[in-house]
Sequence to fold (770 residues):
Amino acid sequence: METSPAIAVNNLRKVYGERAAVDGLNLTVPRGCFFGFLGPNGAGKTTTIKMLMGLAAPNSGTIELLGLAMPSQAMEIKRLIGLVPDETLLFDHLTGGEFLEFVGRMYGLQQSVARERSRELLGLFEMDGHGRKLITEYSKGMRKRVAMAASLIHRPQLFLMDEPFEGVDAVGARLMKDLLLDQVKNGATIFLTSHVLEVVERLCDRVAIIHDGKLVMDEAMADVHSGSGNLEETFVRVVGGGRTTESLDWL
Amino acid sequence: MVRASAGSVIFTGIISLLWYSAFLAGAVATAVAMANPASQPILKSALPPALFLAFLYWQVFPVIMASNGAAMDIRRLMVYPVPRSQLFGLETLLRISVAVEVMVVTAGAVAGLLCNREAKLTAPLALLVFMIFNLFLSTGIKQVLGRWLERKYVREMLVLGIVLAATLPQAFLVIGPPQWILKLLGPLPAVFSLLPWKLTSQIVLGSGGGKEWLALLAWTIAAYLFGRRQFDRSLDFDIEAARSETRAPEREASAWAERIFGLPTRILPDPLGAMVEMELRFLSRAPRFRLVLLMGCVLGQVLWLPQTMSRHGGESVIASNYLTFCTLYALLILGDCLFFNAFGFDRAATQLFFVTPVHFSQVLLAKNVIAMIFVTFQLCFVTVVCFVLRLPVSPAKIGEAFAVVYTCSIFLMAMGNLGSVYQARAVNPAQSWRNSASAKLQASLMLIYPVLALPILLAYGARYAFESQAAFYGVLLIDVLIGAGVYWVAMDSAVEAAGVKMEKMLTALGQGDGPVVSS
Fold:
């Protein structure tokens, strides 16, 4: 099982109405990898990650996470993965500490262990001053910090993160990046989507780009740098961007 | 955005058609009465109370029902360059949604007056002015209450006060008003003739002239000024500041509260204990739920108490089953958020139940356990109130109320688990004034509740037929066994449905409020 990839997606397809949000996606993410999954708006990133999380059922194709098949082995998979979705999973009338403890217990931790880890994580994310505030009073960045902390509490082997740095200040983002790099050093795999290409470029070993539901690039970051120079140029070239505002007379 | 299915639209359309058809029939009857000059003597006595009822329906009932029609989220629209006067106009027009039924019947009255050759031409105009008065007043009241309801403790006390005040007339009708109130009201009849519905009646019936018109217009202008002033104040109102005034986030949670929150964990194993504890914390802090719980505990009592305390009501069915009536009525109020839309307050956070290694059946079970905790709470609350008021409630009656409510609850939980999956709808727990049930669910409940009442009615029927309490409890026991079977089947169905409809359910629960929301 340890030799199986962290994520193996084969011919994945998801259709909404008449439009294929994900169209025949084939993707392999090796274990211990920091993997960036990029794409323009509406490309299918969030749909893909939702299918990996088990929040959306594919129309066809297979998904294996850590060698386990989704959805038949969903319960085993869920014990091993940590999630930071785009929409936060936070119960906003709990305090940050209560929420973390609750998540820990949902992942099978004993109450005392969950409580202790919750306290430590709040300290780690510099949230211990806000531990008694209700989540509804938190800013967007604070919510992301709590969501990230919740993904760590049960020490997962695989992290699925959809825009984890969105709305987070530079200090918080730095903290989160360091934590994630630490996790990868300890053997975890991180699969994240982000629009912040500089962050992806700095953190990720491999990067894939999805466009109109299809995978258009899957390379090691080293190859991206040795090729066209930087990730932004590669991204724009691959997704066919470059429209300017000159076509609008009134702008 | 979640689109309603064709079936859902048709179903809602049929229910709406039936509902509004009844009022349309009322409008036609009103039109016929207004068009007939021979109806004048009847209208003279019937029109003032009818207009007063219209006023109550427009102004008071939405407050009691905590449901305020379509409303604008003003703050979202303030970023656009729209003049405040236009926003006020929009908000006022949306008040029509609170009393569409009244508008329909009034339209009938106007049509009837136009056909009545003996009626003055200004008569229908007076009705229109009365409607405009109500629109402005409704706007102002909504704004005032909206601000007050943002303040934590004011909210609950305000609703309690309004509910109690709204039932005073009924109480006085049944038990008679105290003498000191009669003395106080003594000189007021002269003032009553200056009230808007009285003035409108006089003008419509032809006995009012220039003075009545001036007074009615003065009322309307006053309502406009009140509504506009409150609307402007609401635009400048800082919700977050108001909420933070009544909250002390850094204060240590009280020890007794922590002990209560921690109780489920002492009794139930994780993850069930964790989920029940979370629900207990969450719901006890959610303004909307606190309001619904308060109404559940209080509304039934104020409705049935006058009947019980009346001079002749001591031997009535209501009096002898007061506790059961109150607690069953509370189930109706609590049913939406505890049973039929159990994930409503969780909204997008419901996803957590699908991504953690917890079987969905355990999630539903946790929702059911928390529902029963609050049902038991309101049962105990009502029982204590009965003792305080020295109502004739015996241990046998208390036991009967508990047995009936718990039996009903088994069926409610069964249907509710299915409803929570099939008819999931996001509810903002911070909004006290939004109705959480979809139109389709509300219509379904009109059919479901009578069916759910059947097992209980059978038990009472058995008691009546055999004149035996043993027969009553015997049938109730059979109901419990049937209920357990129904619950088990419904649980299986709900879990299976959640697996299939998960995406649709989560999409519906992830819906935010737009600038105009309907309730």
Notes: The interface with chain B takes residues 53-57, 75-76, 78-79, 83, 85, 87-94, 98, 102-103, 105-108, 110-111, 132-134, 136-137 of chain A (CB under 8 Å). The radius of gyration of chain A is 19 Å. The beta strands of chain A are 7-16, 19-29, 34-38, 60-65, 68-70, 81-84, 158-162, 189-193, 206-211, 214-220. The longest strand of chain A covers residues 19-29.
